[in-house]
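Input.
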Amino acid sequence: MIDDASSLQEFTPQKDYFIGIDSDGCAFDSMEIKHKECFCPAFIKHFELQPVAKYAREVWEFVNLYSRGRGLNRFKAVLKALDYLRRRPEVKDRSVEVPEMGGLREWVNRESRLGNPALEEELQRNPAPDLQRALDWSRAVNRAVEDIVSGVPPFPYLRESLGLMGGQADTVVVSQTPGEALRREWREQEIDGYVRLIAGQEMGTKSEHLAGTAGGRYPPERILMIGDAPGDLEAVRANKALFYPINPGAEEASWRRLYEEALARFFGGTYAGEYESSLIGEFEACLPEKAPWE
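Output.
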């Protein structure tokens, strides 16, 4: 398996089909523990939100777990969560100053490799305090994930599905999780051997991952992305590929359906159209766009 940054453009087909798989919340039941025990406590600490910790937690979990922001890159999620928090009356009533993070916002808007290495490079050129704050937070998250998150198995039917994929498809991990954590988690569960490449946040967006590995190399109807977040669907549409949703709250049933039914349709050429549309309709109904407090 290859997983360095240059491997996107060097990727060459070995099979007739391509399947991309998201990791956190999709392959692994790791979203809840990572966001509730690692991301959110560091968010409250590093952005000095202790006086409104209750509302900061509500906002963080809504953005990253229970809304259409699910699966968002961590730096984009910080900005979205702070924007939500700034608008909340409870926060205004407590006269808490929520950081604006203008420098981070400007960097996020022009950079696609939204990971710590790119942010470290930016800090060398532009040592802005809010960029340093974002990096300190991100590093704290990574330390917490390494310390707390271990032994989390893949969802049932993931391993069996990987076995079915291997005979006909080149399979790639497509994720916005740092590459080091991805490699550790897939290796720990001894399933890294099923995939040809592990692409994390340092290698660009999910859309760039798909375009770099599959774009122009496989017919669109032979490219499938498996994901649990709206960002996965957006990446699929940008690449004119097919999408299989792992529905939040019904992950086991989603993987079982993939194993027992959907993969056969994909390989048999009967997946696109009405079948895919019905699955996407179910998926979009799982995640609201409007926050419950608004």
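The chain has 14 helices and five strands.
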